[in-house]
Amino acid sequence: MLFGSDILLITDDVSLRQVLDLMLRDQVNSPVATISSGSAVQEVMRRAPRLVLVHDRVRSLDGLHIATEILKSCPAKVVLIASDASRAADAYELGITDFLMLPLRRQRVLNCLTRALSAAPFLRKKLHVISGGPAKPPLRFKSRHGFIFVQDSEIVWISAAGNYLELHCVSGTHRVRGTLLETCARLENHRQFLRVHRSIVVNAEYLREVRSWGVDEYVVVLDDAKELPVSRKDVIDEWVASTRGLPSEDGCCRIDEAAQISGRTIKTDPQPEARIS
């Protein structure tokens, strides 16, 4: 399942928007936002989507010009919707490495969106990290060849791997020495980190959704649609309560009592959702 809020379409063609909506209606959780070509670059900067689809035939400016301006001003992934092969070739020379040819084909669109979104999975949070306030002192981890230093805001989730840990960060995955117990003690003052499983810690800043898969079975869904198992539901309950101050017994709000939490969705559908193969 793709998140419609991650995708922005720039076009002046109403029929193109309708075709795309029809193709994606069972693959996105919300409609894809569409804007016209006027002030497109400024709107992309304001919305900070992970993926921008740009139609090469727009009224106010050339679509290729808009696409290249977006590449210069925002690190969003850009895909050109090209009217012919020559326009696609021009786009490639300008640094736009992926494109969709008209007329659109559904499987090609789905493959393209999946690939493009995976290329920049945490763009919105990365922009927040770059443009945020004064940087905190980085966390130090011992690696095979010395030490690595990572800001807490760059860590998306942590998994245990024997006597090692895998830090899944915005910039990539790092294998470091240590145990999850030791690391949780170091992260005690970093309240955004939640130990949702005996071998997994997640950064709540990257948590998109908590989903029920049946009776007392849950997974957390990250911003890149990565799903991780939950074995410590009480931790999620406490986090849900602290995010919104929702009342419940023992000071925490149960997952199944909260429907919408500050843009993060708590779903209780016992059946897995359809996915793109």
From TrEMBL:
GO terms, molecular function: DNA binding; phosphorelay response regulator activity
Sequence ranges assigned to domain HTH LytTR-type in this UniProt record: 139-232
Q: What is the superkingdom listed in this entry's lineage?
A: Bacteria
Q: Name one Pfam family in it.
A: LytTR
Q: Where is the Response regulatory domain?
A: 6-117
Q: What is this protein called?
A: Transcriptional regulator, LytR/AlgR family
Organism annotation: Koribacter versatilis (strain Ellin345)
